[in-house]
Design goal:
Blueprint (H helix, E strand, L loop, with lengths): L32 E6 L1 H4 L9 H16 L3 E6 L2 H25 L14 H21 L5 E6 L2 H4 L1 H16 L3 E6 L13 E2 L3 E2 L4 H11 L4 E6 L19 E2 L20 H13 L3 E6 L9 H6 L6 E3 L9 H17 L2 H17 L1 H18 L4 H7 L3 H17 L7 E8 L2 E9 L2 E6 L5 H12 L2 E6 L4 H15 L8 E3 L6 H4 L8 E5 L2 H10 L13 E5 L5 H13 L8 E7 L6 H12 L3 E4 L1 H5 L19 E7 L2 H11 L4 E5 L3 H10 L4 E4 L18 E3 L7 E3 L5 E8 L19 E2 L9
Parallel strand pairs: 1-2, 1-7, 2-4, 3-4, 7-9, 8-10, 13-14, 13-16, 14-15, 17-18, 17-21, 18-20, 19-20, 21-22
Antiparallel strand pairs: 5-6, 9-10, 11-12, 11-26, 12-25, 23-24
Helix pairs in contact: 3-4, 7-8, 11-14, 11-15, 11-16, 12-16, 14-15, 19-20
GO biological process, one term: L-proline biosynthetic process
GO molecular function, one term: glutamate-5-semialdehyde dehydrogenase activity
Protein name: Delta-1-pyrroline-5-carboxylate synthase
């Protein structure tokens, strides 16, 4: 047993062996015993004229939720002094106003000075009201709360210490939430520099040190310190270069400059860090976070316990590599250097990567084999996902061909002038293409996605963060290594980063100051979750690939079965595979219809009947539960429509604006379909599977977008570029163009420079 004072701790069995703090945020969900410390700034209102009732109610709700999950919750609360000060000020003002009114006989009062209030008196006046409020709030959740007031002597006197320890354990055993505060009505002022003498002694001088002392004493798993700042910054919050520290390690405090203390209360950030480090060394994990921000205070405690990236997490385990924030900064710096290279140099990098994919084929396939074996042994992947995970010689050869196409077509992608305007004499404006910045691409079970996306990012001069699924870890590792090897030929190795830390996707989506665009590649559920989670970062992609093929009355018999077979059976797990087959009503019970059904049966495609189709059949296949299903397997829905107009309406109602096809020999009908279907890709007499960047001649794609802004359909290099405006003048000022100015606007369109013929 480790001792953190001159008296050893009382041993009480817990569900988790204590003595070592959690190494990663993701482990915090296993915390059984939790102390929540509420700073004065959290408990009181911003104007210091009362308690923040809404904020307190939200905190009580979160604590109650965790308590009802079977955790043991304790609260160390500030606020008694501040609350008492407000009450006493009110009483003094009221008393003075009455006396002054009686003395002067006038209704108008003069300015009244409020005497300095002694902290102990304020604590005595505020403690009972604060506790009464807590009791009333916890009662709403059928939870009992108990008040404990302590002083420094309670920890140094062995008998008092044992009594306190036993009381707290008994309250926790009875499912009661202890609410602890320093007994500021009797506590003596702290001695100078007595708060932390080494690692074995901590003096209770404020509620930060009390929370740390209590957490270690009670062998707590997690200490959450809530204040009025987001966490610990590398310089005082509010300064220009201040950055929130996600993970703080012992020894890092030398590189941190502390600002002023909280607007109310006794402790500042330096006191919080010292207390946190002391608790960490005692085996308790610590998170310092903002408990006052209106957007997060309603779930800050539960978010921390769930392992989300909130505030500053104190850890004794320092990762070997850079943090994801550092990786994003490296990708941005590398991307800017990449964009400054000559187009031929960026192309050389991509050609080199294409060569490495074929030259290192055996090593890549060996790593992929490990991933496949682990996935099969664990049985965690469905067959369609296993197919996506698998690499082969032919896939690598196709990848290399696609990369060479990207290299060849990327010569003038960055810095291309797309508009030139003469604003006035000697004042010329240009609009040129530039990279978006830093891309975050999240992909599942698709290791071939890594070199494709990397090549497109290189060609467009973007920095790139890649987050692959753990099921493809070995494959992703070697493919990323080869990508960085190719980047190294021009010194831009850091432009493409693979996130290997235990970052949750939700946490990555919050890096709005570091990431400019998120591109999800995976299941519809993944895409929906990212679209829901991303705050302040655009998301490019599609949540579902519900692709339709409509067979018209004038369809060619020879074309129908070929196109349907290819659309559904060639790669059923793809997002551009057929999911719903629309048949014109006049084709029912015809030889063509029988051929379609026979072909699907031969290919072992399970058929689900739409409501109208089922009504025409005596014995129908299973009726669909929904017409908005992306099967991703050898399954499809068949539905009947009365016309091309109804087919278009069905697609608009149940489709996902991805890819939709008409099979017909009637050009007028086909053109109606092409013009009226509002999807990213609309085809006539061609398989849905052509909806692909490689098949479109883009070399590869980062994904298929169904959004209506910036890029739509298969997204290649052009979709990863934005523009900026360059204005070249000669001592021009706006006032020269006023009504009585000497200059006039011309706004003449100028010819564009010739594009590279290659």
């Amino acid at each position: 047993i480790r001792c953190w004072s001159n008296i050893p701790f009382i041993t009480v069995p817990l569900s988790r062996a204590h003595g070592k703090s959690f190494a990663h945020r993701s482990e915090l969900k296993h915390a059984k015993r939790i102390v929540v410390k509420l700073g004065s700034a959290v408990v009181t209102r911003g104007d210091e004229c009362g308690l923040a009732l809404g904020r307190l109610a939200s905190i009580v709700e979160q604590v109650s939720m965790l308590q009802n999950q079977g955790r043991e919750m304790m609260i160390v609360t500030s606020g008694a002094v501040a609350f008492g000060k407000q009450r006493l000020r009110h009483e003094i003002l009221l008393s003075q106003s009455v006396r002054q009114a009686l003395h002067s006989g006038q209704s108008q009062l003069k300015d009244m000075a409020i005497p300095v209030l002694e902290a102990r008196a304020c604590a005595a006046a505020g403690q009972s009201g604060l506790m009464a409020l807590y009791e009333a709030m916890f009662t709403q959740y059928s939870i009992c709360a108990a008040q404990i007031l302590v002083t420094n002597l309670d920890f140094h006197d062995e008998q008092k210490r044992r009594n306190l320890n036993g009381t707290l354990h008994e309250l926790l055993r009875m499912n009661i939430v202890p609410i602890i505060n320093t007994n500021d009505a009797v506590v003596p002022p702290p001695e100078p520099n007595s708060d932390l003498q080494g690692v074995n002694v901590i003096s209770v001088k404020d509620n930060d040190s009390l929370a740390a002392r209590l957490a270690v004493e009670m062998k707590t798993d997690l200490l959450i310190v809530l204040s009025d700042v987001e966490g610990l910054f590398d310089s005082p919050p509010g300064s220009d270069d201040a950055k929130l520290i996600d993970i703080f390690y012992p020894g890092d405090q030398q590189s941190v400059t502390f600002g002023t203390k909280s607007r109310v209360g006794m402790g500042g950030m330096e006191a919080k860090v010292k207390a946190a480090l002391w608790a960490l060394q005692g085996g308790t994990s610590v998170v310092i976070a903002n408990g006052t921000h209106p957007k997060i205070s309603g779930h800050v405690i539960t978010d921390i316990v769930e392992g989300k990236k909130v505030g500053t997490f104190f850890s004794e385990v320092k990762p070997a590599g850079p943090t994801v924030e550092q990786q994003a900064e490296m990708a941005r710096a590398g991307g800017r250097t990449l964009a400054a290279l000559q187009p031929e140099q960026r192309a050389e990098i991509i050609y080199r990567l294409a060569d490495l994919l074929t030259d290192q084929r055996e090593e890549i396939l060996l790593a992929n084999k490990k991933d496949l074996e682990e996935a099969e042994n664990k049985g965690r992947l469905a067959l369609p996902l296993l197919k996506r995970l698998s690499l082969s010689t032919s896939k690598l050869n196709s990848l290399a061909i696609g990369l060479r196409q990207i290299a060849a077509s990327s010569q003038d992608s960055v810095g291309r002038v797309i508009r030139r305007t003469r604003i006035a004499k000697d004042l010329d404006l240009e609009q040129v293409t530039v990279p978006i910045g830093v891309l975050l691409v999240i992909f599942e079970s698709r290791p071939d996605c890594l070199p494709q996306v990397s090549a497109l990012a290189i060609a467009s001069g973007n920095g790139l963060l890649l987050k692959g699924g753990k099921e493809a870890a070995h494959s992703n590792q070697i493919l990323h290594h080869l990508t960085q090897e190719a980047l190294s030929i021009h010194g831009v190795r850091d432009a493409v980063q693979l996130v290997n830390t235990r970052e949750e996707v939700e946490d990555l989506c919050r890096l709005d100051k570091l990431i400019d665009l998120i591109i999800p590649r995976g299941s519809s559920q993944l895409v929906r979750n990212i679209q829901k989670t991303a705050k302040g970062i655009p998301v490019m992609g599609h949540s579902e690939g519900i692709c339709h093929v409509y067979v018209d009355t004038d369809a060619s018999v020879e074309k129908v079965t070929r196109i349907i077979r290819d659309s559904k059976c060639e790669y059923p797990a793809a997002c551009n595979a057929l999911e719903t087959l629309l048949i014109h009503r006049d084709l029912l019970r015809t030889p063509l219809f029988d051929q379609i059904i026979d072909m699907l049966r031969v290919e072992q495609v399970k058929i689900h009947a739409g409501p109208k189709f089922a009504s025409y059949l005596t014995f129908s296949p299973s009726e669909v539960k929904s017409l908005r299903i992306e099967y991703g397997d050898l399954e499809c829905c068949i539905e009947v429509v009365d016309s091309v107009q109804e087919a278009v309406e069905h697609i608009h109602k149940y489709g996902s604006s991805h890819t939709d096809v008409i099979i017909t020999e009637n050009e007028k009908t086909a053109e109606f379909f092409l013009q009226h279907v509002d999807s990213a890709c609309v085809f006539w007499n061609a398989s849905t599977r052509f909806s692909d960047g490689y098949r479109f001649g883009l070399g590869a794609e980062v994904g298929i977008s169904t959004s209506r802004i910036h890029a739509r359909g298969p997204v290649g290099i052009e979709g990863l570029l934005t523009t900026k405006w360059l204005l070249r003048g000669n001592n021009h000022v706006v006032s020269d163009f006023s009504e009585h100015g000497s200059m006039k606007y011309l706004h003449e369109s100028l010819p564009l420079p010739q594009r590279n013929a290659n």
